[in-house]
Amino acid sequence: MRRGLPSLLILLAALATLASAQTPSFDWPKHVTAGKEFSVETTGNGKAVLYIIGVGQVVGREVTLGGRIVIAADELHNAGHYTAILAGNASEPVDFDVLPQAPESLSFLAKPSRVAVGLHDGISGVAYVFDSFQNLVLAPTDVSFQLSVGGAVQRTISAVTRDGVAWVRLDSAPKAGAAQFDAHVDGIVERRIVQQVPGDPCSVHMSARKAGELIEVETDPLRDCKGNAVPDGTIVTFTERNDGAESTVDAPLKRGIARAELPEHDGAVISVATGVVLGNEIRWRQ
Amino acid sequence: MSLPGSIRRGAIVLGLAFALITPSLCADNQPGVTVANSEVGPRTLEPLTRTAVIRDYLAAWQSLSQAFDRDNSSQLSAAFIGIALNKLSGTIAEQEKLGLRTHYQDLTHHIRLTFYSPEGLSIQLLDNVEYDLQLFDHDKLQATHHVQAQYVAVLTPTEVRWKVRVLQATPE
Question: Which of A103, A200, B143, B161 measures 20 to 30 Å from A164, CA to CA?
Answer without folding.
Answer: B161
